[in-house]
Specification:
Layout (H helix, E strand, L loop, with lengths): L1 H10 L3 E3 L33 E2 L13 E7 L11 E3 L2 E5 L5 E5 L5 E5 L13 E4 L4 E7 L2 E5 L15 E3 L23 E3 L2 E4 L14 E5 L5 E5 L17 H4 L10 E3 L4 E5 L21 E6 L5 E6 L15 E7 L2 E9 L5 E5 L9 E5 L13 E5 L20 H11 L17 E3 L13 E3 L4 E7 L3 E3 L1 E3 L6 H9 L1 H4 L16 H4 L2 H10 L12 H13 L26 E3 L3 E2 L14 E7 L4 E7 L4 H4 L15 E3 L3 E4 L7 E6 L5 E6 L9 E5 L2 E9 L10 E7 L2
């Protein structure tokens, strides 16, 4: 069976070419806006280019931008929303997944829609449909997709069940209680004709629902079509999985969002790994259509072509953002293309219609896994151009020299790691360097693209992480076993986590009440999915384990007779991930030399870099002379026809910046109340252009806590 899989994989190494729609001879714009004045779709348009034709704010006057209004949510938590602005109204989320409508000129609140079950799951945008008469605002809220009246915020009761559909329905085996599973819409769906096309965020370990891509009727919520990312029997790609994987595996989902060529009727869908993310002995094979860029017929869901970016992913290298639909010069002709960024630091460029790579992609050999039962792919696809926008291998001469003590600490740690570059399989009971880290390279913010020059702009992280595997054991302590199977994946075997994304749980029962802890377990928070189906027995056992730290409960402890109950492990995997670990020095800074975050301009006509600069600062290090070192950054850039590239994103300096898109020169910056970990939006009302960004304090452990929307304009 394995040899069949590998033979098939050799045939489908790069892109699979299937019967497709007739190519369009001349370049066509795919931007879908109500008008240039609006920001009516996630990231500005369904083409994923983050581009606005507005020019009132330009290179010559951007330095005069001033804050016009601020809407303080008076909440804590993360805020990653790229809002919609349609007419005079701004639509967005608060940190509890309530939808808010603001007057886009003044920031005054117009209405709020509060879901039945508030949650702190990330929500990055909304979707808007209109036929010129009827208007619908679509909002993902945990496991539901709501249809709201944009004028009032009230649910449109003719959609689904009383105004919503359950995203989990149809993703589990027939007869399974899907309501005990987790699915959420991190990124909004795409509007095409009278359908909304959606993916879902799913767990990264067992159990997980299937990651089907689905289209629903915007009026009724009825399912129009579904594409199975884990193929069913008889479907192409089924032989690249173990038999019946569509029943036993899960995820291979689109959480990052999609892009749409509306005129051709093609939707481009990046997908992630199947579960478990870091150990795949129960899913041997390349696993088509996980970790793929899919081109689907938006009318039917039929597969047109695909490219798999990672074969048999055991590194969590899912494509992290919607691709950008671009038009470039290639081979002496104008080509409509699609550019997909990656956590690895690669940008892949394909002919939008055929899937043919516009720059060569080669299968390179990589080491095999030494973990019992694991069979990694012998090769992985590497683009020969453009060059990676993040460093690819960590060596000892790249370790921090910030202080002698920091260097000595980093060197001692580094000597215990495996560090041989990309696609080195994780080992058992030993840490392997993942560089770029688990958060990239490129992240969910996505790139910006200039349709007039062919230049793409990508902000990237350049920080090393480590990861490893350890043998699953049944300690006889129900709480410890639940933690090992469901929590250690993110928070680590030692409960240390990797703050702020993966908080430490050491001493958590002293900082939070039992009810607050269980509320987070039941509802989820940030990257953490909800465990709504956890039993009272497991919940109590988990609390006892957290009180004890990493020590299993003994027979004579307060565990009572819960040890006598049968333990029902959630995962059948033999090994589990030991947790995300950022490689930091003793003071909490990256243990490698800067830059730790960058902003990159790449000419996609040639594959050459126009410029590359560090993005972000640590204020306390800048005060000591360490400037222009870059930081981790989340949220993408905004590009305007006025020649300015505007971005927040940086974790620690609470700054929004504007750069000259041609040179990378800093033209303007302003202080935000919190970190701008979101993509900015721009719009024009009554002849005045505005810039707005969401800001929050969730990722800055040393900064103020809160959340707000902040708008800027010329005086």
């Amino acid at each position: 069976m394995v040899s069949r899989v590998r033979n098939f994989a050799a045939i489908v190494t790069l892109a699979v070419f299937l019967p497709i729609v007739t190519p369009i001879a001349e370049s066509q714009s795919t931007r879908t806006k109500l008008s240039n004045a609006d920001w009516a779709a996630y990231n500005g348009g369904q083409s994923g280019d983050h581009y606005s034709e507005l020019t009132q704010i330009n290179r010559g006057n951007v330095a005069s931008l001033r804050q016009i209004w601020i809407y303080d949510l008076h909440q804590q938590g993360g805020l990653e929303t790229n809002p919609l602005i349609i007419g005079h109204t701004l639509y967005a989320y608060d940190t509890q997944q309530s939808v808010i409508a603001l007057d886009a000129v003044t920031g005054k609140k117009l209405w709020t829609f509060v879901p039945e079950s508030p949650s702190e799951q990330p929500t990055r945008g909304l979707s808007y449909w209109t036929n010129g008469k009827t208007r619908i605002l679509f909002a993902g809220m945990v496991s539901y997709l709501y249809a709201l009246d944009p004028a009032t915020g009230k649910p449109i009761t003719t959609f689904g069940e009383s105004g919503r559909i359950d995203l989990r329905k149809g993703l589990a085996d027939p007869g399974t209680d899907y309501t005990k599973s987790f699915a959420a819409m991190t990124t909004p769906g795409l509007i095409y004709k009278d359908t909304i096309i959606v993916g879902s965020r799913l767990p990264e370990s067992e159990p997980a629902l299937r990651g089907d891509i689905r289209a629903f009727d915007v009026h009724t919520g009825a399912l129009r079509w579904a594409f199975h990312t884990i193929p069913h029997p008889g479907e192409p790609g089924y032989e690249t999985w173990m038999p019946n994987s569509w029943k036993t595996s899960g995820s291979a989902n689109n959480w990052a969002g999609m892009s749409l060529d509306a005129k051709r009727g093609i939707v481009y869908v990046p997908t992630g790994s199947a579960v478990n993310d870091f150990y795949g002995a129960d899913r041997i094979g390349n696993g088509i259509y996980a970790d793929c860029l899919l081109a689907l017929d938006a009318n039917t869901g039929k597969l047109l072509w695909y490219f798999q970016g990672v074969h048999h992913d055991v590194w969590d290298r899912d494509f992290p953002a919607p691709p950008a639909l671009v038009t470039v010069r290639s081979g002496g002709r104008t080509v409509d293309a699609v550019a997909q960024t990656s956590k690895q630091g690669y940008v892949f460029l394909f002919d939008r219609v055929t899937g043919k790579p516009l720059f060569p992609i080669k299968e390179r050999p990589f080491p095999s896994s030494n973990v019992p039962g694991e069979k990694t792919s012998p090769t992985q696809p590497i683009p020969l151009a453009p060059a990676p926008y993040a460093r690819q291998r960590l060596t000892a001469d790249m370790l921090t020299t910030r202080t002698l003590e920091a260097h000595a600490y980093a060197l001692a740690r580094f000597k215990t790691f495996v560090s041989n570059g990309q696609f080195v399989p994780l080992s058992v009971n030993k840490q392997t360097v993942v560089f770029p880290g688990f958060d990239g390279g490129a992240e969910w913010g996505g790139p910006a693209f200039d349709p007039h020059t062919g230049v793409i702009y990508i902000n990237a992280n350049d920080v090393a992480w480590t990861g490893g595997l350890t043998l699953n054991t049944e300690s006889g302590d129900r709480g410890a076993d639940f933690y090992e199977s469901q929590c250690a994946f993110c928070h680590g075997d030692d409960l240390q986590g990797s703050p702020p994304a993966y908080p430490s749980l050491v001493g958590i029962t002293k900082r939070l009440s039992d009810s607050d802890i269980l509320k987070t377990v039941h509802e989820g928070k940030g990257r953490m999915p909800s465990f709504s189906d956890i039993s009272d027995t497991d919940a109590s056992a988990l609390l006892r384990f957290l009180r004890a730290g990493t020590q299993p409960i003994t027979a004579n402890s307060e565990a009572g007779d819960s040890r006598m109950e049968a333990i029902e492990p959630e995962s059948t995997a033999k090994y589990h991930f030991t947790g995300y670990r950022k490689f930091l020095d003793p003071d909490g800074y990256p243990a490698i030399q800067p830059p730790w975050g960058t902003l990159n301009a790449i000419d996609l006509n040639t594959g050459k870099y126009l410029w590359k600069i560090p993005l972000g600062t640590y204020p306390e290090l800048a005060a000591k002379g360490m400037k222009d070192i870059g930081t981790e950054n989340y949220g993408g850039p905004l590009l305007t026809a006025g020649g300015v590239l505007i971005i927040g994103a940086t974790n620690f300096d609470r700054t929004i910046r504007a750069f000259d898109s041609a040179t990378g020169k800093l033209l303007w910056s302003a202080q935000l109340p919190y970190s701008g970990n979101a993509t900015p939006a721009t719009y024009m009302i009554d002849g005045k252009q505005y810039i707005v960004i969401a800001a929050s304090g969730a990722r800055d452990t040393k900064g103020p806590k809160g959340a707000a929307y902040v708008a800027f304009a010329l005086p």
